[in-house]
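A quick aside before the break. I want you to see a complete sequence-to-structure record at least once, exactly as it would be stored in a machine-readable document. Don't worry about memorizing anything.
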Amino acid sequence: MTTISSEQSYSWISRFAIEHVASRTDLQTAQDFPRDIWQKMGEAGFFKIGITQEYGGSGGGFIELARAGEVFVRSGYNTGLALSWLYQQIIAVYLISRCGTEKQHKDYLPLMAKGNLIASFAVSEPKHGAHPKLLTSTATSDGDDYKLNGEKTYLTNAPIADLFIVIAITGEEQQQKKFSAFLVPSSGEGVTVKPRLKFDFLKPAPHGGIKLQECRVPAANMLGEKDTAYPNIVIPFSDVENVIMMGAVTGAMGAELMDMIVEINKCNIHKDKSLQIEVGALDALLETMRTIVRDAAQKLDQPERAAVPLMLVFKELAAGFQARIAAAVAKWEIKTKERFNVLQTDINVLGALQEKTLQDKQAKLGDELLHGAR
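That is the input. The structure line, written in tokens, reads:
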């Protein structure tokens, strides 16, 4: 069994990514999900990372997952496939492992560890996003079951998912909606999986949506405690997702830098002092961001918002890195490969997707300081 217990053990991830991902230039353009690679990832042990050995995993935690994502992207030059994989692992490690019952652990984790069950987290809704005040999907108690109605969209892995974790309204208190999470099989009655959304970024990660019409699930399919899903599941999941994807972004920036260095050597301009200074600055930024990712991953298990300041600093450093490397390529007229441009686009898209959430977190920190709450 492959384990993630030492730095040296990440080499198998690098070798796999070089052989099966970096060699597939079609991944940057294809609309179809590469199930052949996904199957090989399962055989290699990718889906075991973070899941305890009791349920067929190889152990490890958020630090190991973030580091594995960095290595995968740096060697494979693909952020989209990493997103699909890491998203799957976050659902297994955080949602199922930490919020599920023992029966739910036994039902889902062994399958997920083998890559035989793909899950998607269903929060966002058409025109509403994921804001709790705007969400409208409901789950109504009906005997020993719940009936779910609503529509979800922009869901990572939705078109290939076997299982959805659906966030739905189950109550209201003082005009505030209360939400619960439900495990909903994609094959369940009343579940319609919508066609894949076509995006020109983060390929080949598939995104899509679902429609729920009188979808009946047993009460035992509730994940976590009733009426507490938004503060206990949705918000923490967002933090975990941001931090783990910071690892993948660091890997993408490392791949960008290595590609640029290769082209610099080809052009024989590596002795340019000012260029040397710029490359050194980029490497220093990259190492700083790696340290931030490691520290942020450690803090995910600590009290509320412990990782938020590091997430905010990472956002600023990542934007600075992207601006500097783009400026260097332009100034020294460095010819880059298409995969360099794809990585730049994917990094910028991930930053844009997280911008609003991080701004809200930053405003909350500022509000607490201004009102003496910290």
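Two observations worth writing down. The chain is about 50% helix and 15% strand. Confidence is low (pLDDT under 50) at residues 1-8. We'll return to this after the break.
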